[in-house]
Amino acid sequence: MAISRENVLLALQGIAVPGGGNLVSDDLVRALSIDAGTIRFVIEAKDADAARALAPLEAEARARLLALPGVEKVQIVLTAPAAPRGAPPQVAARSGGASASGGAEPPPSLKIGRHPTPQAGPLPVSGVARILAIGSGKGGVGKSTLTSNLAVALARAGRRVGLLDADIYGPSQPRMLGLTGQRPRTDGQMIEPLHAFGVTVMSIGLMMKEGEALVWRGPMLMGALQQMLNQVKWGELDVLLVDLPPGTGDVQLSLCQKAQVSGAIIVSTPQDVALIDARRAIDMFDKLKTPVLGLVENMSSYICPNCGHEAHLFGHGGVAAEAQQLGLPFLGEIPLNLDVRLAGDAGTPVAAGEGPVPDAFARLADRLIGGGMA
Ligand SMILES: Nc1ncnc2c1ncn2[C@@H]1O[C@H](COP(=O)(O)OP(=O)(O)OP(=O)(O)O)[C@@H](O)[C@H]1O
Asked: How far is ligand 1, taken at its centre, from the CA of residue 352, in Å?
């Protein structure tokens, strides 16, 4: 029998916390997910003392949930922030590069991941002229790589660019932009984004302990995304690129429901399997009434650095053909090149340098600017 979220919350509402209220009314239940017979969630106490006081409630919550029909397993994590409340100092950005890494700091005190605030429909983000969703049907096609490099290329072309890493299942932008270990500053209300290579950057991964968001679903995710859009001091931006998780899930839905997204760009490799999934992503954006602005082919051709021979490891031209068939613009192609990966791993996007690959990203940026998309 399917377990309903409402029944779980109802059971948890019955558990009083010291000082009045209950687990749900005090917003202590975070990251609730229900997966077949398993219920997972986090009880987030405000500090270590509060966590100790809540420990008996964890057992009570488990017992109550296990008594619900269909529940086989209950996983509860009781956590408290590792550091006292207050913002860790932000490390200043080096001009032209990413802020220097200061080692792994605890997450900022602002709680990310909460129930969404009701709103009438998709809203603009203050100061942001355009929001572009960067999506893919399949994982690993280079969507995050493309997003960081496109952001850098747009910044180099003089645009005011923001990048929101909403890939909660594997936020990779901090690593790709050399921001690993840094924490954004917050006053408890608003978040100061980080800056790297001329791009204003915020990643859901910078706001939480590793792996914390993995269990989020539905409303929690929607609330978190809403916070990332509205509680970050984005400043005045010509364009905000949103790096989405692969596929067609809650984050895509939440983004298009909460924000006025100008359009989506779909990244795919030329392989048939990737293209089939890309079609699904396009279909989803159509259903969400978000215009698909075009397709990009990543890992297009491979030029052997030793002999100059051009090979097409994943095929070539498949995405352009698909775009034509769907009547969508083909925005450009990025070659498969070892430097792309090495630069991404090293935290200095290849688009920040010179050469044929940075030129390919510059062409893509120009195409978007020329088309009024960025
Ligand atoms: N054009 C390219 N040439 C060489 N390597 C690339 C290229 N594009 C991406 N890569 C590498 O492929 C791997 C996957 O890329 P990336 O993480 O950007 O994909 P993704 O689609 O965002 O994945 P996920 O869906 O898992 O987030 C990375 O190691 C990246 O460096």
From this structure: 17
Structural domains of the chain, ranges and CATH numbers in brackets: 5-79 (3.30.300.130), 131-370 (3.40.50.300)
Contact assessment for residue 121 and residue 196, using Cβ atoms and an 8 Å cutoff: no
337 lines ligand 1 (CB under 6 A): yes
ipTM higher than threshold 0.90: yes
Has 139 been labeled as part of a binding site?
A: yes
143 Cα to the center of ligand 1, angstroms: 6
**C-alpha span between 95 and 172 (Å, rounded):** 22
Answer yes or no: is pLDDT of 86 > 60: no
Residue 357 annotated in ligand binding: no
The residue to mutate among 144, 203, 251, 252, having the most atoms of ligand 1 within 8 angstroms of its beta carbon, is 144
Whether the pTM exceeds 0.95: the reply is no
Q: What is the CB neighbour count within 10 angstroms for residue 190? A: 12
Cα–Cα distance, 364 to 333 (Å, whole number): 8
| % the chain with pLDDT above 90 | 48
Is 246 near ligand 1, meaning CB less than 6 Å away? yes
Taking the centre of ligand 1 as the mean of its atom positions, its distance from the CA of residue 35, in whole angstroms, is 29
Closest-CA residue to 218 (of 187, 171, 257): 257
Q: Is the pLDDT of residue 85 over 50?
A: no
Model pLDDT, residue 335: 92
Q: pLDDT (tens digit, 9 = 90+) per residue, 259-298?
A: 999 999 999 998 876 788 889 999 999 999 999 999 999 9
